[in-house]
Amino acid sequence: MNILNFLGIACAAASPSSPAIRHRQSSNLEFASKGNPILADGSYYSADPAPLVVNGTVYIVAGRDEAGPAENGFVINEWEILSTTDPSPEGGEWTLHPAVARPEDVFAWASAGTAYAAQLVQGADGRFYLYAPVTQRDAGGATDAFAIGVGVADSPLGPFEDAHPEGPIISQTVPAPGNGIQNIDPTVLVDDDGRVYIYFGTFGQLLAYELSADDMTTILGEGAATRIGSLTGFFEAPWLMKRQGTYYLLYAANNAGADSPCTPTSYHACIAYGTASSPLGPWTYRGIVLDIVSSTTSHPGVFELNGQSLLVYHTRDAEGGTHFRRSVAFDALGWDDSTTPPSIQKVTQTHRPSEDDSNTPIRNIALRAVAESANETPIQYWIAAINDGRIETNPLPPDYWSSYAAEQSPETSTLTLTWNETVQLNGTSMAFFADQRAGSNIGVGFETISTTALRAVLTASGQNGQFGGVGVKEFFAFSPTAS
Ligand SMILES: *[C@@H]1O[C@H](CO)[C@@H](O)[C@H](O)[C@H]1NC(C)=O
Ligand SMILES: *[C@@H]1O[C@H](CO)[C@@H](O)[C@H](O)[C@H]1NC(C)=O
Ligand SMILES: *[C@@H]1O[C@H](CO)[C@@H](O)[C@H](O)[C@H]1NC(C)=O
Predict the structure, then answer these.
(1) Residue 480 Cα, ligand 3 centroid: separation in angstroms?
(2) pTM of this prediction?
């Protein structure tokens, strides 16, 4: 889940909270959801969902995002659970169980913070096992301190204790030295024959082991992990499941570029999947389950309840949401049983109805245009961000467009807005990323014109082949009349 580090952008470090301000055993919050995201009021954010159904109730484990409003970094100190007996994407009754567990409380060997994507499964003994990526206080010289621990409890809601107090079951040094990856994002399947499998990894690395079903913690196979390399665009967040004898692996995919299945920039993630006829592969890539969401990261989980298959994921669509203040959402997942193996139909995202029923007319009709850049846009920036109606205070690269290229930024950039019909315009303006002359985002007005396109030619400062990068957050086109 650390897409930012991958791209070489500094993240703010998670601030360890002092014991005095812990909110353990907070009381449950019952609420009525009006649609996606499930809890949308910004009181609690929730990321990296992993669902488990027990006795007709779905328990969705999530990390609680606690980054500040303009903080570009993950701050996730605890796990929480959302539960309901009647999941409907249109809304319904839910319970939030806050502060179900914190890394340093469950694992004596773990640091506080980094309550990253965990999954809860029920073992053959009926107990509940929480596979949790946390950071080790002492990583013993490993290059990356992330490790996977296992908590166990009699209830899906905890309290969890360490099922393997000796330490993590997976790290760069256990079960075998030499795993050089960041050990996060575990997904576990208790197969119908009772055998247990764990997949994990990020930054394009996906590893798998069989686990002992007796203790749910012992890695089988003498430490030799299976490495999976055949899943197109695999980035992170694997979700392993089985249906009608076929294994499915859903995952967050990013391979921005000409062959990308679905990611317009290097910061985005879609959900893709593959299938296998054996639990450890070989895997065959099958396609896209969910397009990009509003947050740069995405994370799948699938459950069945009341005869429906549902896909859980997260977005930044809650009140005050950002790429680091995400909220869990879910939608119907359909199967096409006419193919062999059965395939997953692409999921359609739904959103709660807008609470802004005033429908205030606006003059900016750029929102209805198609934006294009005459120059090739560097892979981290997104041309579609210049007419999305959003101006971020502290944007990540896909939230704006820029001409900045590490090698050499061009002197001239040309941006166009094109409509599919003739429109009336009498003004335009641009919100720049930074460094603009005072007043330069006020724009210009002109006699009303009829046109189908508007072009901006931007000249960067600089000389002798060295030019500044120009960054545009928003390109407005004003109609004389609001609509
Ligand atoms: C599920 O139902 C069984 C049988 O009634 C019961 O023993 C168990 O405690 C229930 N588990 C949960 C998590 O509700
Ligand atoms: C023109 O674009 C608008 C906004 O994107 C869209 O709703 C409309 O269907 C398009 N009309 C045609 C004829 O393509
Ligand atoms: C465009 O026309 C509207 C309506 O006449 C007017 O209110 C607005 O000030 C004009 N904008 C510019 C930039 O001239």
Answers:
(1) 5
(2) 0.90
Q: Is the pLDDT of residue 15 over 70?
A: no
185: left (phi over 0), alpha (psi -120 to 50) or beta: left
Q: What is the mean pLDDT of residues 450-479?
A: 92
- Ligand 3 centroid vs 460 CA: distance in angstroms? 29
- 282: preceding bond cis by omega (within 30 degrees): yes
Q: 61 and 159 share a domain?
A: yes
Whether 299 shows a pLDDT value over 70: the answer reads: yes
pLDDT at res. 12: 28
Q: How far apart are CA 389 and CA 473, in angstroms?
A: 9
Closest-lying ligand to the alpha carbon of 128?
Answer: 1
Question: Mean pLDDT across the stretch 98-114?
Answer: 98
Q: What is the pLDDT of residues 163-198, one digit of tens each?
A: 999 999 999 999 988 899 999 999 999 999 999 999
Contact 313, 253 (CB under 8 A): no
The label of the residue with tokens 């330490």 reads: 167
- Ligand 3 pocket: which residues have CB below 6 Å? 426-427, 445, 480
Q: Examine residue 22 and state whether it is found in any structural domain, yes or no.
A: no
Nearest residue by C-alpha to atom 8 in ligand 3: 480
DSSP string, 103-122: HHHH-TTBPSS-----EEEE
Q: Are residues 382 and 316 in the same domain?
A: no
- Output the residue whose Cα is nearest ligand 2's atom 14: 420
Based on the domain organization, do 95 and 198 belong to the same domain? Answer: yes
Average pLDDT, the chain: 91
What pLDDT digit, counting tens, does each position of 328-338 carry? 999 999 999 99
Mean pLDDT for 283-311 is: 97
Which of the residue ranges 53-57, 155-159, 178-182 would you say has the lowest mean pLDDT?
Answer: 178-182
Q: Whose CA is nearest to atom 6 of ligand 2?
A: 368
Q: Residue 295's domain spans which residues?
A: 35-344
Burial class (CB in 10 A: 0-12, 13-18, 19+), 56: exposed
Rounded to the nearest angstrom, the distance between the alpha carbon of 81 and the centre of ligand 1 is 18
Residue nearest to atom 5 of ligand 1 (CA): 55
Q: In which band, very low, low, confident or very high, does the pLDDT at 13 lie, cut at 50, 70 and 90?
A: very low
Same domain, 191 and 302: yes
How remote is the CA of residue 85 from the centroid of ligand 1, in Å?
Answer: 14
Count of domains for the chain: 2
d(CA 381, CA 416): 16
- How close is the Cα of 426 to the center of ligand 1, in Å? 67
Please name which ligand lies nearest the alpha carbon of 480.
3
Instruction: Give Dmax over CA atoms of the chain in angstroms.
Output: 78
Question: Within 6 Å (CB) of ligand 2, which residues are found?
Answer: 368, 420
Q: What is the mean pLDDT of residues 234-258?
A: 94
User: Minimum-distance ligand to the CA of 366?
Assistant: 2
